[in-house]
Amino acid sequence: MAIIIDGKSIAEELRAEIRKEVNELKSKTGKLPGLAVILVGENPASQVYVRMKGKACEEVGIVSFQHTLHHDTSQDDLVSLIRTLNAAPEVNGILVQLPLPSHINENAVINAIDPLKDVDGFHPVNVGKMVIGDEDCFYPCTPLGCQELINRYVNDLKGKHLVMVGRSNIVGKPLANMMVQKNKRANCIVTICHTAAADIGYFTRQADILVVAAGKPNTIRGNMVKEGAVVIDVGVNRIENPTDSAKSKLVGDVNFDEVSKVAAAITPVPGGVGPLTITMLLANTLKAFKYHNKIVQ
Amino acid sequence: MAIIIDGKSIAEELRAEIRKEVNELKSKTGKLPGLAVILVGENPASQVYVRMKGKACEEVGIVSFQHTLHHDTSQDDLVSLIRTLNAAPEVNGILVQLPLPSHINENAVINAIDPLKDVDGFHPVNVGKMVIGDEDCFYPCTPLGCQELINRYVNDLKGKHLVMVGRSNIVGKPLANMMVQKNKRANCIVTICHTAAADIGYFTRQADILVVAAGKPNTIRGNMVKEGAVVIDVGVNRIENPTDSAKSKLVGDVNFDEVSKVAAAITPVPGGVGPLTITMLLANTLKAFKYHNKIVQ
Fold this sequence. Notes:
The first copy, chain A, is an alpha/beta fold. Chain A has helices at residues 7-29, 44-60, 75-87, 106-112, 124-132, 141-153, 172-179, 200-204, 256-259, 274-292, and strands at residues 3-4, 34-40, 63-69, 93-96, 161-165, 189-193, 209-212, 230-233, 237-239, 249-251, 265-266. Chain A contains ten helices and eleven strands.
């Protein structure tokens, strides 16, 4: 039976460290880090995420500035708000909650964020630096959380075969690029597989480390995992209960019951990767604050 | 016996198309595309490459501006030349020949190039856009040449397993990122393997398409390749003849004699990928010219 990776307690541990550092920096500089979060429209899931981010900021002493814009907000108005925040000294990080309404071009909006305030790590400059291996950048939060978990549960990553299922810009592509770098927290042989594969199991069965961000429950069954693999499940899928909507539940992309019998360690959903994602947003905001205040550590 | 991929004649065909388009654009705009090439120091190999690039420009009607700087040139002076070229309307592409002398920070120099003139595709903005799948960018020349060859020799890339040996910023990482994208010229399952692998053959034997940029002769032997694979050899290694230096010869990273008996198609060295690299530099310069002159096609 696999070890269940307790993302929640790892996240709490990391948040305690961030809180401590924020306090120390406050004594030193008289200032607190600030994160601006922009929400456009009334997507309920986005509202939940934005609220969680605000709460997490509060817990560690980061000031959060929430900007809620009407669904019909024009792209120009959104970009002009971003320009204002780019210039605001009390704002160290800017996050635009995705997805945006369809009349707004996401790339154009992300490109408007000052790369030095892009704590989501989605701006091309940050993506490019991450790929090049220039660490003077922001790494995206979910892959950063996955990397943290992998490093806690795998000894000596050098040459380990990491198979990434999914090629999104938010998880699959950045994590693959981070884990292939020549540094101590990476140095893996990396395979990215996705919907174009005739047989995903052929690839996943080879994985020492299997990361799944496919967006579909049951993508990975027990017979698709090598004995002793470390499995990181990034998926979050809501399964409705047809008779009682209050009893809907969250599941990942991995069949937990089957895979936990084969793997050495596995993240649960919820309580695995999720808590790490917001923690890494806090860590990135702290990094931005130190950068803007020229604090070298 | 494998088909020998004739990079030289494919490059000639592409250059003829570029020449034709340059002529047409000259009639239309009264202008010619311009490429500035900067060489710092007297590295003999770099001198050869710069000369080849100048000659290739001439052949297709691109104006080449060559800037040869002394080995001791300061980083500031180099960056200031780049700023001048960024502002020069007759210059559509800027290329700094690498490697630079050790007192100069390569990243800082590349970052100074206007991304819209970065025809080498090494600026973080271009690397980031490539990864994100935003095609409004410059792709690096050698990977672009490999992609062209792969598309000519493999039908329907969807789901094919491409194994990339090597993780350099010039070839391995960008090609892996290009070939995993969801588009018709890519859509492969991609594995990047490198020096950290205990057994490279384990990965290379799985490849439908094997691309090798390891920088070492004989990295790939006959028993490391699947029957029927398409093999792209990016390596260029000079083997000296101990008794007669004039008889030195170029070889790739792949043992050609052995692998050509197993593969379906293989690039020779020289005459495989090499001629495509400079051709893609010309294509990128033409793309930059059209961009700067707002010519949509």
